[in-house]
Write a structure and sequence with these properties.
The protein has 12 helices and 10 strands. It is of the alpha+beta class.
């Protein structure tokens, strides 16, 4: 019966540095010794890389890098996680805009050349109203949805869903046109009122400033794609009655005898839902039919209840003659 050499027995018994291997199993010859040497450095644990230095906290000063024009803008710090919207990470972000430019008086012609942020603020303040934007539990979502209607008018997939040749549905929204040409006072009627042309006339300056801040937050969330489109491609919207006539057409609550329709007692024109509509089927008259997609309801927040505007935790910059003093 063959036998194992002493070297193999040692290998089976325990790991060693010097190993023996016989030249042949069962032979009487002395085993040849094989020596394996290990570098001591190879036995040392790998060096632990030092953790990278944390990036400095972003502030208006670091973001502007000494640019005085940049620092002169109004800066607001927003806690995205406190806005009450789904799928938003809870981190703070600084947003800036030119408050004075958005408040100054302009003519309808000048409005066509205003920068996007100014048009956005004027449109939301005039279409929704500053107070409604702030006190409606769903005011921020209403603002984002309205902004999506402009984006959809600029996108042929939504503004001409059946790809009708030479069809121009929304003048001023063709490729290459400015934002202010698409979001104009003919299509968005509020822009043609004093609220759109000179929002600074609003008597309640605190409400006006807070509403402008929240309007810019809505614009940032939509333009950066932080809130997905949930309007199903809507290109228009209407406000309907609130109060006792909740959901009824505004003919029932606008204070006018439109088509001989009397107002419903207790109905209110500014406290109803905003109903959004998308283009569907192209008809023989040269128009697209509309279908209602989603509604944003009016739900007034109780006094002292948390509101989306509370997510704005501080500000730096000029607004209504304010000084550059942080405010929490």
């Amino acid at each position: 019966m063959p036998r194992f050499s002493a070297g193999w027995a040692a290998l089976i018994a325990a790991p060693v540095i010097a190993l023996s291997a016989s030249a042949g199993v069962g032979l009487q010859e002395e085993p040849e010794e094989v020596v394996i040497t290990l570098d001591a450095a190879e036995l040392q644990p790998a060096a632990i890389e030092p953790e990278p230095e944390p990036e400095p906290e972003a502030t208006p000063e670091t973001l502007c890098e000494g640019d005085e024009a940049c620092l002169s803008r109004r800066w607001i710090q927003v806690d995205l996680g406190a806005l009450g919207l789904e799928d938003l990470e809870g981190h703070s972000e600084w947003i800036s805009y030119d408050y004075d430019a958005a408040m100054r008086p302009v003519t309808p012609e000048q409005l066509l050349h205003e920068p996007e942020e100014s048009v956005v603020i004027r449109m939301l303040l005039s279409e929704i109203g500053g107070e409604r934007l702030l006190v409606n539990r769903h005011g921020l979502m209403e603002a984002i949805a309205i902004l999506y209607t402009v984006a959809h008018r600029q996108n042929p997939h939504f503004s001409n869903p059946q790809h009708i040749p030479d069809y121009i549905g929304f003048k001023g929204c063709e490729p290459g046109r400015r934002y202010a040409e698409c979001a104009n006072a003919v299509e968005y009627l509020g822009l043609g009122t004093w609220r759109g042309l000179h929002p600074g006339l609003h008597r309640d300056k605190a409400t006006l400033q807070a509403a402008a801040d929240l309007a810019v937050v809505a614009w940032t969330l939509r333009s950066e794609g932080l809130v997905e489109d949930w309007t199903e491609g809507s290109t228009s919207f209407v406000h309907r009655c609130g109060g006792t006539g909740y959901g009824m057409g505004t003919y029932h609550c606008d204070g006018n005898l439109d088509f001989g329709v009397k107002d419903v007692v207790g109905a209110h024109p500014n406290k109803g839902p905003a109903v959004f509509k998308a283009l569907t089927k192209y008809d023989r008259k040269g128009f697209y039919e509309l279908r209602e997609t989603v509604s944003v309801h009016y739900d007034r927040l109780p006094e002292k209840a948390a509101a989306p505007v509370d997510a704005i935790t501080g500000w730096i910059g000029r607004a209504s003659g304010a000084t550059n003093t942080p405010q929490g």
